[in-house]
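Figure 3 (text version): structure tokens given as input.
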């Protein structure tokens, strides 16, 4: 069956079209959630590295850094 045949079958059969649309929406939401989790994790790691760099250069005390990291966990 070629692509035109598949498209015509989906248009003619509303139940099949609905199932394909639902499956596509579920897959799209899953991919969006995965990308969101990756970006959030990378941002958190970058924040921890920045705090560590500030502590290393003496701009921030270790206690201040610890408070920042703990405040992020509570929220």
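Below: residues designed for each position.
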């Amino acid at each position: 069956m070629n692509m035109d045949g598949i498209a015509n079958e989906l248009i003619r059969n509303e139940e099949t079209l609905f199932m394909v649309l639902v499956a596509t929406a579920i897959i799209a939401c899953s991919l969006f959630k995965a990308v969101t989790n990756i970006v959030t994790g990378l941002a958190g790691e970058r924040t921890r590295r920045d705090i560590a760099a500030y502590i290393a250069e003496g701009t921030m005390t270790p206690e201040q850094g610890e408070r920042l990291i703990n405040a992020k966990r509570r929220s």
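Residues 22-74 form one domain.
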